[in-house]
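fold-stage: in
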Amino acid sequence: MVMVAARFEQVAEEVTGRTAELLGAPVAVTDERGVVIASSEPRAVGLPWHLVATARDSTCVRVPIRLDAQAGEVIVAEPASGEAISPRLTQALVELVVNQTAVVARLPNQHELKNKFIHDLLRGPIGDEASILREGQILGMDLTRPRAVILIDAAAYILAPAAAGRPGQAEGSAPGRTDALGPPRNGEARIRRRAQLVIASVVGFFALPNDTICAYIGDGEVAVLKASSTQDLVAWADGDDGPDQLSPSWANMVALKRAGAALLTRLRHDTSAAINVGIGRYHPGIRGLACSYEDARAALSLGRRFHGHNQVHCLDGLGIAAFVGVSDERTKIDLATHLLRPLDHEPELLETLDVFFAEDCCSSSTANRLSIHRNTLSYRLDKIASLTGLDPRRFDEAVQIRLALVLRSLRNTPS
């Protein structure tokens, strides 16, 4: 229904402009309530027709207009020059313009095709990969490159009421036009305009040639299929990041999160609204994009709940929430393996952790059982914290390490 209303508004604006140009006369389109939704005289938009009609409009030609479930009227007034226009000719011309415009409006445009393609790619069942690659190519997308999903929650901006736009900025309209002079913004049309403004910010930030890898997927969310190879993220990489060669999914995550943080700053500036960003890992293949999307969606959902808004959320930054809130066991095992990978070649530290947890995190009994001095134990625990970023002497982080150890042990355990 909302798409129908948006299409009706689009047709009304197009019919108004073309008819006014052809006849050289004032033209307006009203909805079924008699409110002007498009007019060659902008100040009339948003007002009931009877309040803006003048004496010379009493002889205007009124032509009914219907598009799907929406109805209204095209009203053609007498030209200011006083030139007479045949009512019959006027009606025939208006009907022709309406019919032509309606046919074009029903055709899906490039944005709609792209949005549906990416939506289905991330959320729907994946069919033949070769066909998907070809369809993506037709839409201008290169899906052969490694890509990870950046999921932007811009609902506070995209789904906000009309009055909640940026201070001093019209509702997605042309520069200089204000809401007071513009039409009452149809909900779906406003949502599409705002979503496109968010996408434009993303395109500008990443210096993309176009917006083909970005899509509005509903519920105030924009998905970005970000190229995630080392070369693509060089602007946000650091020589000390130390790429994880054993796990390609996590290899460039640090740089990807830096890019996400910088993008968040840009989007908050451009929208003046609360924004949340979820980062998904890279997964190989076409089907990997849906997996990356699930990562980003889980991180976004849990991150908003446990860590608040205006942040970048990723699975490895959620703490205990990731192990509790993520339902997919494979994802949790992968996360545990990633968090503990710095200890893979540190058997002494792993043994220390096993004993430390077995002794209920008691330093003195752990040191006695390991036959080491308490200062040596303290050194080992400091080294664990330095390598993993998790301190086993802090409760939440100790629970996270313990859960990671248990989950990692399932990696090679037969089911």
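fold-stage: in (second)
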Amino acid sequence: MRILYYIFGLNIGGAETFIYSVLSQINTDKYHIDFILQSHNNKNTKLMDLCHEKESKVFYIDAFHKSPIKSTLQTQSIIKKGDYDLIHIHQNAMINIGPIIAGRRCGIPVILHSHNSLSNAGKIGKVLHTINRKHYASKVIRLACGEEAGKWMYGDLDYKVVSNAISLDRYRYSEAYRAEIRRRHGIPNDAKVIGHIGRFVPAKNHEMIVDIFKSIASTDENVTLVMVGDGELKPKIEHRVSTELLTDRVVFAGNVDDAYKYYSAFDVLLFPSLFEGLPYTLVESQASGLKCLVSDNVTKDVKVTSCIEYLELNKSEKVWRDTLITCLQESNDRYEKSKSMIGSVYDVKHMIVELVNIYNEIGERAQIR
């Protein structure tokens, strides 16, 4: 089966992590996957290298928001020339309908996969999403990373949840990783580390992370904040940390190829997101047995272990600070807590079987037609 994955770019995010899990685990001799990208600035080198290793072709087209007609026609041409059996679209909102139109014109099944529960595209984007959902949601095979992401993308229509699964062994807690990452950033072994992994975008709420950390750091000299990731708001947050005289207490790790090691270095993950689909970061954290303090705006579907504690986003900074301090002080058997992930929907072995069944069912339907 020849499958075409459509995504804006291959950077650091939940959709890209899902794609990496699929491409690394699926039988690519039987299910060959190629890619259409709109961005040439792709920072996920690990995934790009995997595409090369698996002999996946990567096609570049014009960005839909700049040239919608040209972008759609380019997608249509790639589908026809590549003789693909289906197109699998990964999006956060139904704003770009080009690949849906192209797939239907070429007569192949179209999968739309929702990876978020909201969009930061602004008022116009939300209006377009609502209009397009009304006209196009019924014309695609509907997948979502979680229940809330499905409701956001498809409204009252039915959909299937394919969870953001991971290879559990990769994220298991490691004393060696803990020591390695702390040495890398000059963090004492006895320091308490508050961690965050995610893109520097409005949804991740980095301003609140800094607010909470500042409050804790004012009374505890043995606490460090480590933020992993990159993005448009990073310079602003770096400037904020500098003006607050916290530079020596905060680590900006940037985009790293070994993010899985950082979970072992953290003592608690702070995740006050404004909105999410189903964040891989929290799945990975649980696989490492890491305590997580999470905004109640994040889907409850992600919780498999007792590691996750939800807190209302509108609670005061003091409540968040005090709760985070309690999390830091709690004893935590990380090996034992992570065991609950084995065999769950977030175990990659389970997810691959589920996805292959979907692909096979689509293939059988196409043959019947």
